[in-house]
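Hi everyone, sorry if this is the wrong subforum. Our group has a chain we'd like a structural model of before ordering constructs, and none of us has done structure prediction before. Sequence below.
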Amino acid sequence: MVTTILSTAGIAIAVVTGIWLLGDIIARWSGMLLAVAGVGYMIGGLVRGAVMAAIGLLLWLIGHWIFAYKYHGWKSALAQRLFTTTRLRRFDPTRGWAIPVTDSGQADGFDSAYPSSGM
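Answer:
Right subforum, don't worry. Here is the predicted structure as tokens:
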């Protein structure tokens, strides 16, 4: 019983670590290839091409979301535009991470968050 629980936990940790380290690259590339193949099937007249293209687009977006979450920036201008100007903006991982700067060069709320020590 304990061995099964530890094995399951170890596998879950390995999967999460793998997704964190390589998930953005794998999802972006496999999504792009699947979307291109789906478009090719659609041109050939097969209905399954639309499903393949949709799954490919979804994988591509997931890959860009993971990248933006990890690095606080976008790998593609198209992905940035999709996540910031459409209904997907609710899922934008970079939303609210920037600190607005005022004309004085100080970040808004900086003085109140970190009071000076009087030195």
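For your construct planning: The mean pLDDT is 83. Residues 19-88 form one domain.
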